[in-house]
Every structure is written in structure tokens, then in C-alpha cells.
Amino acid sequence: MTSKQVTSAIEDADDARSRESGDTDRTEAPAEGYQRGLGNRQIQMIAIGGAIGTGLFLGAGKAISKAGPSLILAYAVVGVVIFLIMRALGELLMYRPVSGSFSEYAREFLGPFFGYATGWTYWLFWVVTGITEVTAAANYVDYWWHGVPQWISALVFTVVLYLVNLISVKLFGELEFWFSMVKVTAIVGMILIGIGVLTLGFSKAGDTASVSNLWQFHGFFPHGVGGTLMTLQIVMFAFLAVELVGVTAGESKDPKTTLPKAINTVPWRIGLFYIGSLIIILSVVPWTEFSPGVSPFVAAFGKIGLPLGAGIVNFVVLTAALSSCNSGMYSTGRMLRDLALNGQGPKAFAKLTRSGTPLLGTSASAAFMLVGVWINYEWPSDAFTYVVSFATISGMWAWIMILAAQIRYRAKADRGELPRSGFRMPGAPWTSWIALAFIGLVIVLMGVDKDTRVSLYVAPVWAAIMVVSYYVLKARTPEVFATGAVAEALPTTQATVAEAAADAEA
Questions:
Q1: What is the per-residue pLDDT for 12?
Q2: Low-confidence ranges of the chain (pLDDT < 50)
């Protein structure tokens, strides 16, 4: 039984239940045992909010100190690459929208090892990102309460978000909708206030605010082009999670309509929330007045002379960090379930609660996120840098797999071996190769920077774990990897499918 057949088996069981209940609308029917509870407005806001988090609100402070105003150009260049990655993902999603997403496509087009490694690496990425986000959230709490140890705040946030993720996917989508709405409203508000300072000259920063601040202090490239290049990994981290819409495919009410719309909003999202906000902030306040480890948004309001505004923004960025961590717990449970359904993870992770959530997978992920509490206890000052570096390299693996799978899929579709997607990647395969080359450049630059080099020390260790565990699993259950792509005639997976269907029905 292939992974695609596993999905079909679950959907067939869903169809049978739908016929018994008189519900024949496949758009509303559960997929892969999940409930299709995410509507268009929720998918759109998850897509928007997924790209607005710690990387922009906190990581930009360090990037500004390294690149100055040229950071704007770095965001623009990376933004183009991100759009190409998302269009590649969109082409795959329209070919076959599944919750396993990147792991499923890697398994189908690149082989079982790549599906296995992608599923576990993306799970690790979100665990590490969750640690990053609770670390950032703990930093934001320090803005109001200096006496609260950073690790205590991280512990409280991890536990609370775990409890939130035990709810239904529909309520999860609603919470994420409002989380994202807060972030979007806040950034638009900051941009409007900044424009007011520039044009009307009010506040303490009114006399010095000017667009000329973008080049007046040692030029647009104050540390040279090399300084700008060294910020690319920070910028790439800021965009990690834009691919989260792919994980929602199995729980979207109308994936073939909502997902392309979400993906096509990427350019204006990047233009407004990243490039637009940075242009305004760096025009209002010279880049030399920002410091690493401090949110440039909070600092900008402080310089303007609106301390209440700075407090509001600090609350918003706290919400952003917690929203991203919440999304991480959502996606990790789904990725573990996809691995379990394909016989590449513990079978227990395939079970769903009555409300359609993968309880055991989410619980295991939350337990690993508690490692972040220990990191915040041992190294409170360095925690963010360490976890950002490793999160970036593991997150970029998912992007590499998306592009590689899309290249293989497009080649097969052009030969007539597979149906063509209705949402094709523009300029492929050349644009796919360009995006892959850019990711390779960023990885090389991470090795040059001593602050990010730690991730390249850890990545080979994780790769070795993946290779060894894969061959151990293959030796124990060879039927899982009997074909060149995915499992054939897999009793364990069939049993898992039956259990998942039974759990969903219960």
C-alpha cells in the first residue's frame, strides 16, 4: 500500500461514514481522518500571521546592527525566493492536497528516505522554533517584570499553549485568526504613525525623522555588501513558517481555492509587513540607535516618545511569538501522524481524539519543547541565537525538499505521467534551481558567521541520526520500504488506518 493509497483508504472510510449519514459533500468531508474545519478567512490569516513572528519583531534588531538600512534590500531579495518556494509548494498542493505535505511529496518524488527525513526534520524544526518563540516571549515579559526569571515565563507559556492545542481544529483556526489580526493591525498602525511622524513632524523624533536617514549615516551599506550578506540567515529565519499553509491542506474546507489565494498574497505581505515597516522605522529613527536583542518596533516607539505605544507593541510582539509557537504545536502533531500512517513513526501517533486532533503527537512535541525551559535556565542570554541558528537550517531543509519534489513532479507531469497541476510554478524548472542555489548560498554564509556556525555542527549529527534510524527501521520492517517510493502491502499501516478511522468516528 503506497502512502497515497493510505490516504485514499482513510478517505474511503470517511466516504462510507458520509453516505451513512446522508452527507455526500466531499468538500466538507474529513480528509485523512481529520475534520475540514478551516475556512477561507482562517487560512488567509494563518498564511499572513505565519510570516509575522519573532524573526521580524526580535531578530530584526540584530540584523539592523549588522546591515543597517541595506537590511531592506535583503528582505526584498529573500522575499522573491520565498515566493518562488511557495509557488512550488502550491503546484504540489494542487496536484494532491494532503496534511503530510512536504513529507508526502518528498516520499513520492524523491524516495522513502527523504520522506522519512523530511517528516522528522520538519517536526524538529517546529520543536526548535517553539523553543525560539517561548524564548522571545520570555524576553518580552522582561519588558514589564524584570524580576521574573526567563525560564519561568518560558515554562508557563509552553504549558498554556499545549493546553490550547487540545481543542478542535476549528477553534484553533479561530484563535489563530484573531492572533494574526492583532499582528496585522499593529503593524499597519505602526506604519501609519511612522508616516505621520515623517509628514507632520509630531513627537520627539519629528525634527530628525527623514527618509534621508536611510543613507545619511555611513551610507545605505554601512558595513559593506558583506555585512548585508551575513544577515541573510536571520532574514531567512524571519520567513520560516510561511509554508505552514501546506500543513493545513488536509483540514481546509476548500483547499484548491483557499490555498492558491493564500500563496498569491505572499508578495504584498512581504512588501507591507517587512519592507514597508522597515522603511518607515529606519526613516523615523536612524539605524545607529537600534541595538541587538531589542525589538526595533518597541525601540522606535520609545524614541518617538510614546512609552504607552511601546508597551502596546511589546504586547503585540508577545502575541506574535505565542501565536507562532501555537502554530508549531499544531503542525508537529500532524507531521508525527503522517509519519505514523506511513509506518515511519510510532503507531500511537496516528490516533485522533473525538474532535479530530492528534493528542499523543502534540503531547510528545510539547514535552520536547520543554527543553527550551532548560536552555533558558542555563543560557538565558544566548538562547535565542542558538535556537535560531538550528531552526533556520532545519527549516530550510523543508524548502529544499519542496523545490526538489516540485522539479521531479513537473518533469513527470510534462511527460504526461502525472496530471498537470492547475497552479503551476512560473519559470520552472529554472526558477526552482535558482531558489535552491540561493538556499545553498545562505548555508555557506552560515558557516562563515561564527554566531550561526553552531547549526552546521549540529546538522551533521541530526543527519547521522536520520540515516542510522532509517536503516534500522528498514531492517525491522522491510515491507514499509519495499518499493522505490513508499510502502507496499503494509499490515501495520492498514491497521493504523483502521484505528485512525475508528478514532475519528468515536
A1: 45
A2: 1-31, 483-506
